[in-house]
Amino acid sequence: MALTLADSYQPRSSLAIFAANSCCTLPAPISVFTLSNIQSNLSAIDAQISLERKASKEHTVGWICALPKGQTAATVMLDQVHANLISKPPKDPDTYTLGSMGQHNIVMTYLLKRQIDPSQATAVAEQIVFTFPLIKFTLLVEKGSGAMVRLLLDHGADSQLADERGHERLFTAINSGNVEAAAALLEIDSVRNPSKSAQQSMLTLAIKKGHEAMSNFLLDHGAHLDHEDEDGQVSLCVAAEQGILGAVRLLLENSAYVDTTDVECGRSPLWHAAGRGPCSPYRRDA
């Protein structure tokens, strides 16, 4: 079957392909383009390539996680997530997340195997530098991200820069249960005294999320037991209402007032405990 052009080629004229054999049916419609459309699409592709080249040159920090879920957890520490590359070097098998923390542009990836292999870590580190040639330093983070957070803070990252929801970095670390990151942030004077609303909700947030280690950490660093959250509840009432037995025990061991009451409704921890079903050891019920 021979194919012919419906019209002779002319600049900016529509191009369409038809089958010369009238018995032939095409499996699907063929798009019709004008030369200007083609030029427009090529311009868009050129613009994307330019952005990718710019991105590969502007990202200067490499962050390698042990597992994919570690990369997912680390992503919440970013102030902004950038668009991913649509093209990579042909032999680059790694998956990247691009973003920024303060003034630092970061490339995240993870090891492909489910355990840390020194030879594989070296290969991933070499590959990330090849794909992003201006990377100044790369860290391998097995658990948490305390070392990375400290490094960025030492290089001037703004610890109080909030995301689009108004959450500062300390809130993000507590929300994700990242004790190492929270410890690094609390080493900074400006973070030791967060906003009033943050002070009132940090311990309760850790309890609601079921982060036992974070709850212990916050209590060891002076978290107030009687601060209300945004719903007017204190931490012991929240733990009793959620049925988190370990949190209730932890708070009582830290001298929480057993007959404290909610600000809004006056309900005590005993009221909450008596009105709910079985408790979970230290995990918020589904």
From TrEMBL:
UniProt-recorded Gene Ontology molecular function terms: catalytic activity
ANK repeat ranges per the UniProt record: 198-230, 231-263
UniProt KW keywords: ANK repeat, Repeat
Superkingdom, taxonomy of origin: Eukaryota
Secretion signal span: none
Family matches, as InterPro entries: Ankyrin_rpt, Ankyrin_rpt-contain_sf, Dendritic_Spine_Reg/Scaffold, Nucleoside_phosphorylase_sf
Gene3D superfamilies: Ankyrin repeat-containing domain, Nucleoside phosphorylase domain
GO biological processes: nucleoside metabolic process
Name by which UniProt lists this protein: Uncharacterized protein
Organism, scientific name: Penicillium oxalicum (strain 114-2 / CGMCC 5302)
Origin organism lineage: Eukaryota, Fungi, Dikarya, Ascomycota, Pezizomycotina
